[in-house]
Structure formats: structure tokens, C-alpha cells
């Protein structure tokens, strides 16, 4: 527990992957979920659409260009770039946006259950962590091939140790599910709980209500 408290006060040295979401003036709500060769996997207003360059969805979204990490789309005559995992357009009203409430425990921490790639974990909400942070034992249990990620160093309660930058296919807390979330897997037993860092939290609206933390998906 003390190690977890220490971790919340330390800044991870590993540089997380930044998520950039382009600005779209109007509906539909679009997310670039995957790039499979020459095919873009899009979610358009909740419907999965597979498009190749030159094709248009029933909603009028046309794929102009595709790279391994982004797609250029034409919507209502306007051209927009979408990064992988980027979601924009047609924002839900605040009352309807997916949200989750997390109560502060007696030790002053915000703990909540959730899932990584569909497998259950316990999260410690940590706004001081650049990314989601996982110890290597938990990563193995979740089936994450972290050694294929970029190797670096982080500072923990035990000192400088090895870490690997990875991208998680999906991270969910309550009814908030986000694709392509940057994470770091740290060698050793710390953190004992998965740190829910800013690579997830920055994609939500965070509100405080007394001893309750409210996360609401932005897009």
C-alpha cells in the first residue's frame, strides 16, 4: 500500500503516447478503430463500417487516404484526419454520455474495478501517472506481449527499473470503454494495483463531488 502511495506522487519517466482527436464540426460520431491492410475499420454512429480508399459508408463518410496510423476522411464536403483510436464529431449530451462514479476509500484513494482487453483488474486512479501502469506479473496474467514494446526506464519506490511501452486494445471502467490506450509495463511487483493514468483519464471529463470522482467519456 505504501508503495502505491509513493507511486501516486512520482511522475513516470516513460513518455506515453499522445492521443490527438481532430475537431469535427458536425455529426456523425466517428472512431477509427483499426487499420487492416488496405481497409479502415470505423465506428460511425455506433455502426461498424469497413472501408477501402474511395469507398463511402451509408452515412456519407468517404475514405480518401489510409496509412497504418491514420485515415483521411471526407464528411459533408470537409476533409479531416483521424488518428488510430481518434474519435470525434456528434458529441453526446452530457446527461447521456457514458459515466462512472468512484468513491474515495478510507485511505483517501480512488479504487475501482475495470478491465484491460476484456480481463478484470483493479484500478487505482492516479492523475500523476502519464499512462496506465501495470506490473509485469499482471501483464502476463492479462496476456500482454509487453516485451514486444519499446523498452525504457521508470522510477519506482524501489529505484530505477525496466519498463516497456505498449498499447492496450481496450481499457474499460464501468460503461466507459476506450480503444488503443497507451500503457507502460514495469518489471517487478510495483505497482501492486494497475494505475489508471492520464492516457485513459485525459479522454474523460473528470468531476469531483465531495468524496466521489465522476468520469464521463468526452466523445
How are the elements arranged and paired?
Layout: H1 2-9, E1 30-36, E2 39-44, E3 47-52, E4 62-67, E5 70-75, E6 78-83, E7 87-88, E8 99-103, E9 111-116, E10 119-125, E11 132-135, H2 136-141, E12 150-156, E13 159-173, E14 176-186, E15 194-196, H3 198-201, E16 204-209, E17 212-217
Parallel strand pairs: 10-15, 11-14
Antiparallel strand pairs: 1-2, 1-7, 2-3, 4-5, 5-6, 8-17, 9-10, 9-13, 12-13, 13-14, 16-17
Summarize the structure.
The chain has helices spanning 2-9, 136-141, 198-201; strands at 30-36, 39-44, 47-52, 62-67, 70-75, 78-83, 87-88, 99-103, 111-116, 119-125, 132-135, 150-156, 159-173, 176-186, 194-196, 204-209, 212-217. By secondary structure, it is mainly β.
Span between termini: 34 Å
Determine the CATH superfamily of the largest domain.
Answer: Acid Proteases
Gross morphology is globular
Helical content band: under 10%
Structural class: mainly beta
According to CATH, what is the class of the largest domain?
Answer: Mainly Beta
Number of domains: 2
- Nearest-angstrom radius of gyration? 18 Å
Average pLDDT confidence is 80
Considering the chains and any ligands shown, give keywords for the structure.
17 strands, SH3 type barrels, 219 residues, four-stranded antiparallel beta sheet, Cathepsin D, subunit A, domain 1, seven-stranded mixed beta sheet, single chain, mainly beta
Notes on the structure:
This protein has helices spanning 2-9, 136-141, 198-201, and strands at 30-36, 39-44, 47-52, 62-67, 70-75, 78-83, 87-88, 99-103, 111-116, 119-125, 132-135, 150-156, 159-173, 176-186, 194-196, 204-209, 212-217. It is mainly β and 219 residues long. The chain has two domains: 2-18 and 94-217, Cathepsin D, subunit A, domain 1; 30-85, SH3 type barrels (Roll). Strands 9, 10, 11, 12, 13, 14 and 15 form a seven-stranded mixed sheet that branches. A four-stranded antiparallel sheet has the order 3-2-1-7, with no helix packed on it. Strand 4 and strand 5 (70-75) form a beta hairpin. The longest helix has 8 residues, at 2-9. Residues 1-27 and 90-96 have low confidence and may be disordered.
Amino acid at each position: 500500500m505504501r508503495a502505491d502511495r509513493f507511486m501516486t506522487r512520482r511522475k513516470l519517466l516513460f513518455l506515453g503516447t499522445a492521443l490527438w482527436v481532430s475537431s469535427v464540426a458536425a455529426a456523425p460520431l466517428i472512431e477509427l478503430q483499426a487499420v487492416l491492410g488496405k481497409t479502415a475499420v470505423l465506428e460511425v454512429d455506433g455502426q461498424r463500417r469497413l472501408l477501402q480508399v474511395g469507398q463511402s459508408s451509408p452515412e456519407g463518410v468517404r475514405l480518401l487516404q489510409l496509412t497504418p496510423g491514420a485515415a483521411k476522411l471526407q464528411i459533408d464536403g470537409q476533409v479531416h484526419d483521424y488518428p488510430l483510436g481518434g474519435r470525434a464529431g456528434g458529441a453526446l449530451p452530457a446527461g447521456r454520455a457514458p459515466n462512472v462514479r468512484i468513491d474515495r476509500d478510507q485511505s483517501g484513494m480512488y479504487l475501482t474495478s475495470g478491465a484491460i482487453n476484456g480481463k478484470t483488474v483493479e484500478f487505482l486512479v492516479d492523475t500523476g501517472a502519464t499512462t496506465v501502469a501495470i506490473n509485469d506479473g499482471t501483464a502476463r496474467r492479462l496476456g500482454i506481449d509487453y516485451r514486444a514494446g519499446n523498452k525504457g526506464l521508470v522510477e519506482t519506490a524501489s529505484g530505477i527499473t525496466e519498463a516497456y511501452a505498449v498499447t492496450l486494445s481496450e481499457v474499460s471502467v464501468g460503461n466507459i470503454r476506450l480503444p488503443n490506450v497507451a500503457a507502460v509495463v514495469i518489471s517487478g511487483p510495483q505497482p501492486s494495483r494497475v494505475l489508471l493514468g492520464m492516457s485513459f483519464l485525459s479522454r474523460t471529463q473528470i468531476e469531483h463531488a465531495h468524496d466521489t470522482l465522476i468520469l464521463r467519456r468526452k466523445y
